[in-house]
Amino acid sequence: MPLIIVETNASLDPAQKRSLAVKLTELFTKTLHTAAAHTHVQVTDNQFLSLGGNPESPAAVVTIKAAESSISRDARKDLVAGISAALPQHLQCLSGDRIYMIFEEQPVQNFAVGDSIMTFNTMHTAKSVENFAEVAP
Q: pLDDT tens-digit profile of 75-117?
């Protein structure tokens, strides 16, 4: 159930946003062994960003919100590497040192889909995603 929020000061057309969202969804579903239906991407362009005191150069801030303990240390490393590679591919003006990433973990009961709060009925591991989440009434 990760939510990936990409904010950039670059200007993107709708096709670039879609392409980036597809790439990030693929990266997260492969790395976390979860369904694409549980991976959400938000891309916001034309934001004011000043990384390292420099608001002129293209930059991106990526926030990854996920249920606590759902992203292992190794998966986090793989995601950082994948995001660092994907963003410059989709935003050609962006260099890797201008990407700032934040991982935020929340208790699973803080996530909802529609009018249903999510709960885990088993511990999530990379090898077993059966019964990963159930929807509580």
A: 999 999 999 999 999 887 888 889 999 999 998 888 877 777 7
Backbone angles phi, psi at 25, to 5 degrees: -60, -45
pLDDT more than 90, % of the chain: 64
Rounded to the nearest 5 percent, the helix, strand and coil shares of the chain are: 35, 30, 40
The domains located in the chain, with CATH, are 3-109 (3.30.429.10)
Given the structure tokens 């979860």, which residue do they identify? Answer: 34
Confidence (pTM): 0.82
Taking every pair of Cα atoms in the chain, the longest distance, rounded to a whole number of angstroms, is: 48
Question: With contact defined as beta carbons under 8 Å apart, do 64 and 2 qualify?
Answer: yes
The answer to whether 86 and 27 are in contact (CB under 8 A) is: yes
**Long-range contacts from 124-129, C-beta under 8 angstroms, 24+ separation:** 124/67, 124/69, 124/70, 126/32, 126/33, 126/72, 126/75, 127/33, 129/33, 129/34
- For the chain, how far is it from start to end, CA to CA, in angstroms? 18
Identify the residue with better confidence: 32 or 134. 32
Cβ distance 130 to 122 under 8 Å? yes
